[in-house]
């Protein structure tokens, strides 16, 4: 098991239930809890809100898994169970704060070459 300090672990664990903000009709994960004003500044660095959403809502989870599990692989079926926990949490947070929004989903992205496992909150 890795030697992660509790501060880093708390940051990574926070991604399971991040703050979610609405900006210009689009939902954004506010992982740092900065609030809408600072999030709007980050969004303005992109050509439009949809592009910003693609990058801001991209969350790596492999570091979190590494904190808890010393030996795992991307083809392990249990990875989908972990992804499902994030998915249920994020979608429940969206429903609780914004109601039913059509076209919301959570996508799993992997890069086996680099060992990256990421999730993205998508909105059509």
Provide an overview of this structure.
43% of the residues lie in helices and 23% in strands. The chain is built from five helices and five strands; from the N terminus they run αββααβααββ. The strands form two sheets. Strands 3-5-4 form a three-stranded antiparallel β-sheet. Strands 1-2 form a two-stranded antiparallel sheet. The protein is globular and about 40 Å long.
**Secondary-structure element sequence?**
HEEHHEHHEE
Tell the overall outline.
Answer: globular
Q: Strand order across the biggest sheet?
A: 3-5-4
In this structure, how is the largest beta sheet organized? 3 strands, antiparallel
Helix content: 40-55%
Report, as a whole number of angstroms, the end-to-end distance. 39 Å
Radius of gyration: 15 Å
* Beta strand %: 15-25%
Q: Taking all residues together, what is the mean pLDDT? A: 93
Q: Residue ranges: pLDDT <50 for 5 or more in a row?
A: none
What is the β-strand count? 5
Indicate the structural class: alpha+beta
Short description:
This protein has 124 residues and is an alpha+beta fold. Helices cover 43% and strands 23% of the residues.
Write the layout of secondary structure elements.
Layout: H1 6-14, E1 19-23, E2 26-30, H2 36-43, H3 49-56, E3 58-60, H4 62-68, H5 78-98, E4 104-111, E5 116-123
Antiparallel strand pairs: 1-2, 3-5, 4-5
